[in-house]
Amino acid sequence: LACALPLTAAPAAASAAPPRVTLGSVIPAPVSVHADGSTFSLTARTVIESPSSARNVADRLASALRPATGYRLPIMAQAPAGVPAIALVPGHAGGQLGAEGYRLSVRRSGVTLRANENAGLYAGVQTLRQLLPAAIDAATPQRARWTVPGGDIVDYPRFGYRGAMLDEARHFHTPDEIKAYIDELSRFKVNYLHLHLADDQGWRIQIDSWPRLTTVGGAPGTGVDGVGGGYLTKAQYRDLVRYAAARYVTIVPEIDMPGHVNAAQVAYPELTCDGVAPPPRTDTDVGYSSLCIGKEVTYKFVEDVIRELAAMTPGPYLHIGGDEAQATTPADYLTFEQRVLPLVAKYGKTAYGWNEIAAAPAASSAVAQYWGLDTSNPTLAAAVAKGTKVVMSPANKAYLDQKYDPSTVLGLDWAGYIEVRTAYDWDPGTLLSDVPASAVLGVEAPLWSETLRSLDDIQFMAFPRLAAIAELGWSHSHDWDSFRARLGAYGSRWVAQDVNFYHSPQIDWA
Ligand code: TNX
């Protein structure tokens, strides 16, 4: 019987038993699930068996399971005979699984996780965590029977790009807050974190050749309402890149241009056409600032920033914004993008931008992030015909900063209200009628932070909708009733972890 004991001596009426965990109660839904009726019990004797090549994954698994169980869970190359093990087996798991897929076998005698790469083992570990009782996510030892339902899961992603974005510019969020967000994202097999590092209100990444970007643009008081200054030093950024990589998440840095540059122009007035510094901005307007397209210093600035950013970013993508350039003429916009998109390639990265970049011919080798509200986009479709790839972030479905309903206190509502079902009920492969699924790399859920300050705020807007977007990116199946049931059961895991979330009335929370 897979049933956790009550965590605390709550009055009987309030202590509804947590839902029984079945092999299929996993978000995102796996490709195939075959329960066999057996049960594995994690006990004080259990060991983690792992070759040294998978040590990172073994460490992550051990640190996920030790706090709530209080067990030692030693990691060893070979479990002694008769000792029950959770075995990590990297390599030769079959071509169908790719780099991120895995096979999980749960038997009475032990658990075996196979994958071609460590990224796949890590994905399998996230599944295994969801197969234990929700109390496994508590930070301190719990009394529970740590059972895992027996059977086999085979799983691999539908899309290679499953992203989330965090706006560091409107309000700065600290490295620890970003790490906490990475922890939660990676549980849902999200594998990219896009950081929006500069905007009109603030500049949040150290650039050595233009030091005032951060000493001025990241000073205390920069941010919406004059709250939320700060910036990432290069050392902090590199540490974040490493932290994310250890969880198989790739960081995608964004510097938004040629619009959304007021903070840079406050720091360096030569970046305006008249050479006069604009006032710092702490409001939430958009579309009023532009780099000076005809000045050579603009391209010196842009190239310095791209070079330094590329040098500290091991991931393949560098995002150069390109949205809402209402203060740049269309001709100037094209001139700018034709010159700047190739600069990203010069420093070894794939250029990535909001879908407006599709108007520039040089975007044929770039990735465009679709954030519109429509179900067709002729400019993007024409670029796709020439080679542009697409990440889907339709604002009326994937934007985590939009209110759930009219009563939501945080967030904006320009793209409409987005309840959980709205976030879930669409297909990234077919939403744009004029863009074929073959051009879609995946999905991303952006979280703009005009109204968000704390980690609690971030979590409330992201969860549970991020789980919906993650399932659209990973799963090959799509079924609201099934998702709704699995999400309802997942709520007790967020409670156990002390993660804030929106208790949507569309879901029966366990
Ligand atoms: C539009 S989406 C923007 C951002 C805002 C966001 C608020 C996009 C590419 N640009 O500048 O923060 O709306 O929802």
TrEMBL record:
<feature type="domain" description="Glycoside hydrolase family 20 catalytic">
    <location>
        <begin position="335"/>
        <end position="476"/>
    </location>
</feature>
<protein>
    <recommendedName>
        <fullName>beta-N-acetylhexosaminidase</fullName>
        <ecNumber>3.2.1.52</ecNumber>
    </recommendedName>
</protein>
<dbReference type="Pfam" id="PF00728">
    <property type="entry name" value="Glyco_hydro_20"/>
</dbReference>
<dbReference type="InterPro" id="IPR025705">
    <property type="entry name" value="Beta_hexosaminidase_sua/sub"/>
</dbReference>
<keyword id="KW-0732">Signal</keyword>
<keyword id="KW-0326">Glycosidase</keyword>
<feature type="signal peptide">
    <location>
        <begin position="1"/>
        <end position="16"/>
    </location>
</feature>
<dbReference type="InterPro" id="IPR015882">
    <property type="entry name" value="HEX_bac_N"/>
</dbReference>
<dbReference type="InterPro" id="IPR029018">
    <property type="entry name" value="Hex-like_dom2"/>
</dbReference>
<dbReference type="Pfam" id="PF02838">
    <property type="entry name" value="Glyco_hydro_20b"/>
</dbReference>
<dbReference type="InterPro" id="IPR017853">
    <property type="entry name" value="GH"/>
</dbReference>
<feature type="domain" description="Beta-hexosaminidase bacterial type N-terminal">
    <location>
        <begin position="25"/>
        <end position="156"/>
    </location>
</feature>
<dbReference type="InterPro" id="IPR015883">
    <property type="entry name" value="Glyco_hydro_20_cat"/>
</dbReference>
<keyword id="KW-0378">Hydrolase</keyword>
<comment type="similarity">
    <text>Belongs to the glycosyl hydrolase 20 family.</text>
</comment>
<feature type="domain" description="Glycoside hydrolase family 20 catalytic">
    <location>
        <begin position="159"/>
        <end position="327"/>
    </location>
</feature>
